[in-house]
Amino acid sequence: MNGVKCSRQPVTSDVPQGSVLCPILFNIFINDLNEGIECSLSKFAEKDLGLLVNSRLNMSQQCTQVAKKANGILACVRNSVASNREVIVPLYLALVSPHVEYCVQFWSPHYKKDIEFLECVQRRATRLVRGLENKSYEEQLRELGLFILEKRRLREDLIALYSYLKGGCSEAGVGLFSQVTIDRMRGNGLELLQGRFRLDIKKNFFTETVVRHWNRMPREVVQSPSLEMFKKWVNVALQGMV
Known about the structure:
The protein has 242 residues and is an all-alpha fold. It has 3 domains: 16-50, no CATH class; 60-146, no CATH class; 166-238, no CATH class. It is built from 10 helices and no strands. It has helices at 22-30, 60-80, 85-101, 104-107, 112-127, 137-144, 149-165, 206-214, 219-222, 227-238. Helix 2 packs parallel to helix 5 (112-127), helix 7 (149-165) crosses helix 8 and helix 7 (149-165) packs antiparallel against helix 10. The chain is globular. The chain starts with 21 loop residues before the first helix and ends with a helix. The mean pLDDT is 81.
């Protein structure tokens, strides 16, 4: 602070990395960190929350770390249980999938190699199911009722945006999205403003990528009367997207 570093102090509490509650608990712990400090202060975390990102906002290291953890768990599942869908799919969704989706709105991959690297995790999982070995990956997903991971990420993004627009997250991000003033008879009637940036990296931010897909959604999806109805309709719409 003001060019001076304090001495190191022991940490007496922490949060489990990779857990669903990790970001919330971390924010609780550091929320009052700036009380009594009379200067500009920036609070941030990367590795402490189980996320890795370099100074250029490249998420490749995070993708590699996540895939390694997920593949390790998948190997344990393969060696421990019977290869039928009633066992493999629930274990995959409960033990493996959370690793490739933890805080993914922040580190969602945009490089093709990273996207495919993560998708290979799910490919290995579907190949474990007896009776599907000779079918294509797309056929395996249809049989198991799963989406490719890119669609799963998009689905969660759209759900988060729907909740925001309905007022569920208004205090957390005032002004993140702006509705386009257009003829209500065209488009889906709830189209959002797409930003323009000089730097390509900003085009991959959550607030931009989700808007692009939201504006392509059918009217009946974006104007769903409830979150449950939105989830149902967005699943149907995603069948023909990405």
